[in-house]
Amino acid sequence: METSKFDIADYLDSNEMIAEYLNAVFAEENDSDIITAIGHIAKSIGITKIAQETGLSRPSLYKALSDGSKP
């Protein structure tokens, strides 16, 4: 049997799901988890779309929103 890696971004497909996810992460009050969660949300929306709308580059967004980053 083949398994695949779980990716929360695959399930953040509505504003309601994103809000619930953020509420759960904020309740834990862990800064690194919040940054990671924002990265997951950005991935679910589309890094390219966010880059175009903000004027930031895709690589800088990936770097800023990766695990362990301190943007």
Domain count: the total is: 1
Give the number of DSSP strands: 0
Beta-strand content bin: under 5%
Oligomer: single chain
Distance between the termini: 40 Å
The value of Rg in angstroms is: 13 Å
Largest sheet: none
- Succession of helices and strands: HHHH
| Mean pLDDT score | 90
SS element count, helices:
4
Structural class designation: mainly alpha
Give keywords.
4 helices, mainly alpha, 71 residues, globular
Description of the molecule:
With 71 residues, the chain is an all-alpha fold. The chain has one domain. It is built from four helices and no strands. The protein has helices at residues 15-28, 31-45, 47-54, 58-64. α1 runs antiparallel to α2 (31-45). The radius of gyration is 13 Å and the shape is globular. The termini are far apart. The mean pLDDT is 90.
Helices and strands in order:
Layout: H1 15-28, H2 31-45, H3 47-54, H4 58-64
Helix pairs in contact: 1-2
Compact summary:
The protein is an all-alpha fold. The protein contains four helices and no strands. Helix 1 packs antiparallel against helix 2.
